[in-house]
Specification:
The protein is of the alpha/beta class. It has three domains: 127 residues, Chitobiase/beta-hexosaminidase domain 2-like (Chitobiase, domain 2, 2-Layer Sandwich); 336 residues, TIM Barrel (Alpha-Beta Barrel); 144 residues, Alpha-Beta Complex (Alpha-d-glucuronidase, C-terminal Domain), CATH 3.90.1330. 37% of the residues lie in helices and 10% in strands. It contains 22 helices and 14 strands. It is globular and about 80 Å long. The mean pLDDT is 97. It binds beta-D-glucopyranuronic acid. Beta-D-glucopyranuronic acid binds next to loops.
Length: 700
């Protein structure tokens, strides 16, 4: 059992009465209409059926237990009237699953406004069986709440993956378009099964070669594989492509020839790929060219590209992850300062893509202050599924817990209950276009993600993209049942392990609001001492600001005043350390080492004990997993067990390295309940990782 089948492993249903009840409900299948998507739906159900019951689901026209798959247009009038009111309640990708009476027979109907909706409904029916739910009396209606549910692959054309820890890129550019690997189909199935409907194939640190004829042909081949599964392809557009193509000597977005170049390029792509999604752009950030190179604004750049793809219904996802040219007082303020003044100026087919927090995919960040403050611009969420700052693919960290925390945060911009989820699904400001992106954690590893539990973060991203109000706990349970086992004695403790894993990593890496103290470049392991990088805001010391006086980043009025970018109830509440949630304490405040915490202990004491708690949490994760051997196949069980040992060792390394470093400033004793570091600070500083996995950006 390699894990290749992800959550789509259709295990034989061994409970005889359950299996019999399913067999009674499903005696034959009738697919009305004809399309590759409906064919994919039939195949998926048939394959699942084969594996669940060891028998074939036959084609049939009528009878008790008939399963009907049909686009609403194909339904006979009587059935259509049975689901009339449901139809009004779904959107173009939603679906209806209903148990109905037809000519005295009980039938199950999966229907939708589009064939893709039928496919989503088919995966849903399969899921119900994987979860061992009753299917004899179904009345399910469901629709995605966000329109563009997209994976971002940071994959380079040479097949390296920036910040990828699961092997090489799955896109075999060299052998495309001729070689279509089975993985491409399975990738599409997996994504469709959780409702992901778009994929950006290439790295945000872009290579303009992807826009040449030779590569467009390869992209087209992938688009054809994905189309039946409702997945649109997108590409990253390198802003200087008109220059690099050799066609022009400028990429100025207001230049007529440049505009025409992009229009022609869009026409060329759409001629090959009529449902091409559009472009994702990283501009004027970390060496990527952009409109600022020509004294133009982000609006000029985004709108120019938006005009090029608009005639084809394409969109532009313009990233807000930018660096200002000046020496920044506070990195956390930059995106807001640059973008908020542009609110309302972007074309209708532009989404501004914003990372969940204002720094960079840390184990914990408060939500990005842009959320809610650009009501006239659709903002797209960007989460990172790959664990760049969270222990790569060696640590078990269930990220949907982190995603959920951000989505649930209240921005207060329109009063209470103006959550980030409402910004993203467009309901807060009535945005027409909505989107969410996840930086993919997959590669050519046999199990796609390296760590077997990395799959759960991909899965959970898809589920939250479909419904940003779902609970991460429910998602964890679903994933465990579909991926490993339905046994309660397995699902309950391991759900708990997954939920706790996120807080554990925060505690052993960056407790109490610390952030960006990972080692240079590769971002693996502790590096709070790093201070030599050319831009100040790349250095950990810039973020923790530890000295004899204390520790933390003052973002209140007496400091960078980043806090004023948040709506009042937050700005006000967090302006005092006493009313700032402890999880964000050192994010917003610089405090003395003997600052008194809520529990009466000093800041130093709690910092040390929280690091220790992180280690103890991992110890608990190890114990929980070791009790699960009987429920998991040997290969996956042992892999997780070994990886957890690495995580345990490294959580201690984090604790010891950080406490040794910070102690030289605090001058205080490590509390008794926390073991003394095994080595001295020089030892931790001297550790090097010349072959740490994960390609770093080319600009580094
Ligand atoms: C940082 C990564 C870098 C990315 C950049 C981005 O270290 O590799 O290129 O984000 O999002 O987190 O553009």
């Amino acid at each position: 059992q390699t894990g290749y089948d992800l959550w789509l492993q259709y295990e034989e249903i061994s409970d005889a009465s359950l299996s019999q009840s399913y067999l009674n409900s499903l005696t034959g299948i009738k697919v009305m209409g004809n399309s590759p998507t409906l064919e994919a739906s039939r195949n998926e159900i048939s394959n699942a059926y084969d594996s669940f019951f060891n028998q074939e689901l036959k084609n049939a026209n009528s009878g008790d237990g008939l399963l009907i798959l049909a686009n609403i247009d194909q339904l006979p009038a009587n059935m259509r009237s049975d689901v009339k009111s449901d139809i009004e309640n779904i959107n173009s990708e939603g679906y209806i699953i209903r148990s109905l009476e037809q000519n005295g027979n009980k039938v199950t109907l999966i229907t939708a406004k589009t064939d893709i909706g039928v496919l989503y409904g088919s995966f849903r029916l399969i899921k119900e069986m994987q979860l061992h739910n009753d299917i004899s009396n179904l009345a399910i209606i469901d629709s995605p709440k966000i329109q563009k549910r997209v994976l971002n692959h940071w994959d380079n054309l040479d097949r390296t993956v920036e910040r990828g820890y699961a092997g090489f890129s799955i896109w075999d550019w060299h052998l495309l378009p001729e070689l279509i690997k089975p993985e491409y189909v399975d990738y599409a199935r997996a994504n469709a099964s959780i409702g992901i409907n778009g994929t950006v194939l290439t790295n945000v640190n872009a290579n303009s070669l992807i826009l040449t004829e030779q590569y467009i042909e390869k992209v087209k081949a992938l688009a054809e594989v994905f189309r039946p599964y409702g997945i649109q392809v997108y590409l990253t557009a390198r802003f200087s492509a008109p220059l690099e193509s050799g066609d022009l000597d400028t990429a100025d977005p207001l230049n007529t020839e440049v505009k025409q170049w992009w229009k022609d390029k869009a026409d060329e792509i759409y001629a090959e790929i009529p449902d091409f999604g559009g472009f994702l752009v990283k501009a004027n950030s970390e060496g990527q060219p952009g409109p600022n190179n020509y004294d133009r604004t982000h609006v000029d750049g985004a709108n120019m590209l938006a005009e090029a793809v608009a005639p084809h219904n394409g969109i532009v996802m313009w990233r807000a992850f930018v660096y200002s040219e000046d020496d920044p007082e506070d990195r956390a303020k930059q995106a807001y300062s640059e973008f908020v003044p542009f609110d309302g100026q972007f074309k209708d087919n532009v989404l501004v893509q914003v990372k969940n927090g204002p720094i960079d995919f840390q184990p914990r960040e408060p939500f990005h202050p842009m959320f809610g403050t650009m009501p006239n611009t659709p903002l797209m969420m960007e989460f990172q599924i790959t664990q760049e700052y969270l222990g790569f693919a060696s640590h078990l960290v269930y990220l949907p817990k982190l995603f959920e925390e951000t989505l649930e945060e209240d921005t207060y911009v329109n009063g209470e209950n103006s959550t980030v989820a409402k910004v993203i699904d467009g309901s807060l400001s009535n945005n027409k276009l909505t989107g969410i992106a996840g930086v993919a954690n997959i590669g050519s590893a046999k199990n796609w993600t390296g760590h077997p539990f990395g799959q759960s973060s991909w899965y959970g991203f898809g589920r939250l993209a479909w419904d940003p109000y779902m609970s991460s706990e429910e998602i964890a349970e679903e994933w465990l049942k579909r991926t490993f086992s339905n046994e309660e004695a397995f699902v309950d403790p391991v759900t708990d392990l997954m939920i706790k894993s996120r807080e554990a990593v925060v505690k052993y890496m960056t407790p109490l609001g610390l952030h960006h103290i990972m080692d240079t470049g590769h971002h693996y392991g502790p590096g709070p001492w790093v201070s030599s990088l050319s831009r100040p805001e790349w250095n950990p010391v810039y973020y923790h600001k530890a000295d004899e006086e204390g520790i933390g980043f003052d973002r209140t009025q007496s400091g960078s005043d980043a806090l004023s970018q948040y709506a009042d109830p937050i700005a006000e509440k967090y302006s005092s350390p006493k009313t700032t949630p402890e999880k964000y304490l050192l994010w917003f405040h610089h405090l003395p080492w003997d600052y008194e915490m809520d529990n009466g202990e000093t800041l130093w004491h709690n910092l040390a004990t929280t690091y220790q708690e992180g280690v103890e949490d991992v110890e608990e994760m190890v114990d929980t997993w070791n009790n699960m051997e009987e429920y998991v196949d040997k290969e996956r069980f042992e892999k997780v067990a070994m990886l957890l040992q690495i995580q345990l060792k490294e959580s201690k390394w984090w604790r010891d390295a950080c406490l040794s470093y910070f102690q030289q400033f605090s001058g205080m004793e490590i509390p008794e309940s926390v073991p003394q570091p095994e080595h001295d600070l020089e030892y931790y500083k001297s550790l090097e990782f010349p072959f740490a996995p994960g390609i770093r950006p080319s600009w580094e």
